[in-house]
Amino acid sequence: MDVEAPERPTIDSGRRGSAPRSRHTSLFVGIAIAVFALLFGSIATASAKDDHHHPSPPNPSATPVHGDAIPNVTLVENQIKAYYSDTLVGTDHVPSATGNYAKEMAKIEKAADAYLASSKARHPRGVKGKVKPAVLFDVDDTTLNTYNYEIFSGFSYNPVTNAEYVNDARFPAVPGMPSLVNWAAKKGYTVFFLTGRPEAQRAGTVTNLVKVGYQVPTDANHLYLKQATPPSYLHCAAVTTCTTIEYKSGTRAHIESLGYDIVGNFGDQFSDLSGGYGDRTFKLPNPMYYLP
Ligand SMILES: [Mg+2]
Hints:
By secondary structure, the protein is α/β, with parallel strands linked by helices. It has two domains: 7-69, no CATH class; 73-283, 3-Layer(aba) Sandwich (Rossmann fold). The protein has eleven helices and seven strands. It has a five-stranded parallel beta sheet, with helices on both faces. A two-stranded antiparallel sheet has the order 1-2. Strand 1 and strand 2 (92-94) form a beta hairpin. Helix 1 runs antiparallel to helix 2. It starts with 6 loop residues before the first helix and ends in a 9-residue tail after the last strand. Magnesium ion (MG) binds next to loops.
């Protein structure tokens, strides 16, 4: 489902609103806006409900006909800064604990808390003791927030400068996530981390997770990073031929083959959540970048 598509005509109509037009055109535009408002309202509601179960990526191949229908990059960056409620800590720009990002995360975490407290999640497949309940978390912008790096880099990823942030363990926690993760572990869930970061960044990743309050095991059996040579269970000839969805869903399949049921899979990218091996998915907000 393309959740962005309904917005385009609205923006377009707004643009056209400043140009002279006939009464019939005004009426037509008015009706069109009303129809889109209804349509977008229902799509937005459906999307919010469906996020947990059927993540729906936007359509990145869409080619707009009108340039003014494309969100303006400068304005989008300003919206992102306002959404995170940009706060300076030392020299780093980080999200505010009271901004809309933190508020949205709190809502998602509340829903996750309720789900993970349910006996359905705690006793997957209804067979007590036979299948071990687990929860799985991506790292960047799921457990650690990378807004400081995006501001530093001007929203332009560079593997060299990004590695400096990673190895310096410079990222704050995603608001509320250490509490959710630690609470899930106390409830009896085995916690797994699954990231596209390379194995070479294990030390920095572990240091960062521990530093911001994740009190769960982060050894190689619980924190999965991308190996230079893919393990045999991934069925990928080389690390470069394995798509993110293949890497992530293949690793989840491997974890489940060890006797776990991943009852909750948390990620900020649709590619974290596609491909199965997760009873329920939790899509976390990330307007900063898109990873297919
Ligand atoms: Mg991520």
